Amino acid sequence: MFIRQFEYLEALAREKHFRRAAEACNVSQPTLSAALAQLEDELGVPLVERSGRFQGLTPEGEIVLARARRALIEIDALRAEVAEAREGLRGKLRLGVIPTALPMAVRVTAPFCSAFPAVTLEILSLTSDQIWQRLEGFEIDAGLTYIDDEPPPGALYKPIYRESYCLLTRADGPLGGRETISWAEAAEQKLCLLTGDMQNRRIIDGLFHKVGKAPRPAVETNSIFNLITHAALPGVASVSSRQVLELFGPLAGVIALPLVDPQAQRTIGLVVADRQPLPPLPRKFFASAPSLDDLEA
Q1: Is the pLDDT of residue 36 over 70?
Q2: What is the distance in angstroms between the CA of the first residue and the CA of the last residue of the chain?
Q3: 191-238, pLDDT tens digit by residue?
Q4: Within 10 Å of residue 238's Cβ, how many Cβ atoms?
Q5: Using CA of residue 171, residue 175, residue 179, residue 183, what is the dihedral sign?
Q6: d(CA 297, CA 291)
Q7: Weakest-pLDDT range from 64-78, 135-149, 266-280
Q8: What kind and span of H or E run contains 199?
Q9: How far apart (Å, rounded) are the C-alpha atoms in residues 187 and 155?
Q10: Model's pTM, two decimal places?
Q11: Is the dihedral of CA 272, 275, 281, 284 positive or negative?
Q12: For the chain, which has fewer Cβ within 10 Å, the N-terminal or C-terminal residue?
């Protein structure tokens, strides 16, 4: 009985609404509410703050939720192992990817999809902080994010590629004849940058700080698409990952100038929670991803 109750509690914490949680679990709202009330009776503590609508979980409810998520992960892993033994690997793998790495995610998803065609993938655009939080909260199975400065405790990680940087600007603009540009010079441009909640932006700001600059961007966005397209505007330049351009190329009339002095790189890696035993889906996904060492060999 606890399994269903744990599923209802996790859905309510995720949806933050009784009706939506019930719909996510394919049950009626009275069924979900009654099951949670029974769980409260069995544990002898209130789990949900109620005042006509969902107000959040009680402190006891947060403790039970953490345990419930761990239990559900173990149950899912057990089901996956049994299913794998019977009919091969199946299920859904949830992957969180930082926005700058979304175009490169195919490097890790392609070999996995080829090896395990019965598994479905859910790829979510998340900040690096959100990836760590959701890994810890059992809300995703793996992440693709920066690993140089902040590999988390309790995580396994594998380097996938190195990110380097360039300035996107109009070919017919003042910088059209250049082959490179320094970070100090780039800071003087009218810039489009990613928003401050993204690790890429914090890295960019740190590189500008190293050369004694603190640019004030004219445009901020959380979209890689917007970052690239705004470089086509007269007088605007964008700082972008060169790896994104390797896949899509710059816009017509836009050039990519490598940023130098310093020439900077950051490592993007695949991360999974270091739980033993590691469930089949993240274990096989992690093992199938080609590492940076493999690609550079």
Answers
A1: yes
A2: 52
A3: 999 999 888 999 999 999 999 998 889 999 998 889 999 999 999 999
A4: 28
A5: negative
A6: 10
A7: 64-78
A8: helix 199-210
A9: 36
A10: 0.70
A11: positive
A12: C
Helix axes 59-87, 29-43, angle to 10 degrees: 110
Q: In sequence order, what are the residues at sequence separation of 6 or more whose Cβ sits closer than 8 angstroms to the Cβ of residue 289? A: 107, 108, 111, 112, 158, 160, 270
Q: Residue 196: helix, strand or coil by DSSP? A: coil
* pLDDT for the residue numbered 294: 58
Residues 6 or more apart whose CB falls under 8 angstroms from that of 183 comprise 207, 208, 210, 211, 213, 259, 260, 261, 262
Label residue 229 exposed, middle or buried (CB < 10 Å: 0-12, 13-18, 19+). Answer: middle
The residue assigned the tokens 């933050």 is: 16
DSSP assignment string, 165-182: EEEEEETTSTTTT-S-EE
Please choose, from the candidates 136, 139, 107, the residue with its C-alpha nearest in 3D space to the C-alpha of residue 122.
139
Could you tell me the sign of the dihedral formed by the alpha carbons of 95, 100, 101, 104, in that order?
Answer: positive
User: CA-CA distance, 143 to 124, in Å (whole number)?
Assistant: 9
Amino acid at 203: I
- HSE, CB side, 13 Å, CA atoms: give it for residue 4: 13
CB 241 within 8 A of CB 116: no
Question: Contact 289/198 with Cβ under 8 angstroms?
Answer: no
DSSP state of 236: -
Q: How far is CA 65 from the centre of its chain?
A: 22
- CA–CA distance, 209 with 200 (Å, rounded to integer): 14
Q: What percent of the chain has pLDDT over 70?
A: 92
